[in-house]
Write a structure and sequence with these properties.
- 50% of the residues lie in helices and 14% in strands.
- By secondary structure, it is of the alpha+beta class.
């Protein structure tokens, strides 16, 4: 797990982490010798005896759900992940409106997982398939605890936000590109809506919901683990595979043929609903909506990454979508 140095944070963040460290020191029976923020509300904590990942949740019910879900995963045979632990603390960890749970720390491999290599892409989707097989066996037990995934509605709302952001986006992106990207989304959503029955007929299981590369963690022994279940929902496996395809296509040069080399995705490529969904520019809309919401377009590094995703790959993506349209004609 990559960590950043606490001294690189803003002064306000430093003050918060100083207070949080003092709180943890007052609660843990083991002496804390290191505390390193990994990302927001996720902290590496090392004591004299153990190492933990401490993660914060806005409600105690969300924390308890994560504890129960990961325990069920392990019990049902999916062992390639973490488990929440009962930490050596005086009472439930609660600090300034946040409930904290302790997870076992998975020592990372020197080789960081990414989607650049075919081996990693194949291993990642096989692990996701294993996760689906496991969650399909106990999905019924979580139907009242986990929300249903509504992909068409979610993407329609994402398009709506993107469209509302146009007055700002026009400062950064040529109007021609914006018009075409919106047309891709509208065509995709209409096709998905017309073929909605496909998604409704597919068996329901528990979806991961965030199959980004950073949620695949290779441990020191070389085993790949799946982590971070904050966005789990109920739905068909194809929802996760669509997201996985969207994540890896930039590394495949937007090649339909290379995408079809993954058997977990290939089986869906004869279906109109899935093909229409592949055209939706989920990654572009997600990143620009976040940039506008957080006003992070002033961050040169983030801006360059999102512009590369949007413009540098535009014509390769356009060719891919033209291939989809030919298949659907």
């Amino acid at each position: 797990m990559r960590a950043f140095n606490i001294t690189n944070n803003k002064k306000g963040d430093d003050d918060y982490f100083d207070r949080l460290l003092s709180y943890f020191q007052s609660q843990f029976y083991e002496r804390i010798i290191q505390m390193v923020p990994i990302r927001k509300a996720v902290i590496y904590l090392r004591t004299e005896k153990n190492a933990y990942v401490v993660k914060g949740y806005h409600t105690n019910s969300r924390l308890r759900l994560q504890e129960a879900f990961t325990a069920t995963l392990k019990k049902e045979g999916f062992v390639k992940t973490y488990l929440f632990l009962t930490p050596p603390v005086r009472e439930q960890l609660f600090f300034e409106g946040t409930y904290f749970g302790c997870m076992e720390y998975i020592p990372p491999n020197k080789s960081v997982f990414s989607f650049h290599s075919h081996k990693n892409r194949q291993e990642g989707i096989e692990l996701l398939e294993q996760f689906h097989r496991t969650t399909s066996s106990f999905e019924a037990r979580y139907r009242t605890l986990i929300p249903k995934g509504h992909l068409i509605e979610k993407w329609a709302e994402r398009l709506n936000v993107f469209s509302n952001n146009l007055p700002i986006l026009e400062y950064f992106i040529n109007e021609q590109f914006l018009v075409e990207m919106i047309s891709w989304a509208e065509w995709s959503l209409q096709g998905m809506e017309n073929n909605r029955s496909f998604f409704q007929k597919e068996p329901s299981l528990i979806l991961h919901g965030d199959v980004a590369h950073h949620n695949f963690l290779r441990d020191a022994a070389g085993q790949l683990n799946l982590i971070d279940f904050d966005l789990i929902s109920l739905g068909p496996a194809s929802f996760d595979y669509l997201q996985y395809a969207n994540r890896i296509l930039p590394y495949l040069d937007w090649s339909f043929e290379r995408l079809s080399s993954l058997k977990q995705i290939k089986k869906y490529l004869h279906n109109a609903a899935f093909l229409y969904a592949l055209a939706y520019p989920a990654d572009i809309f997600r990143e620009w909506n976040r940039m506008v919401r957080e006003k992070s377009y002033t961050d040169h590094t983030k801006y360059k990454q999102v512009m590369d995703l949007t413009i540098s790959q535009f014509y390769a993506r356009k060719k891919f979508i033209e291939t989809l349209k030919e298949l659907l004609d």
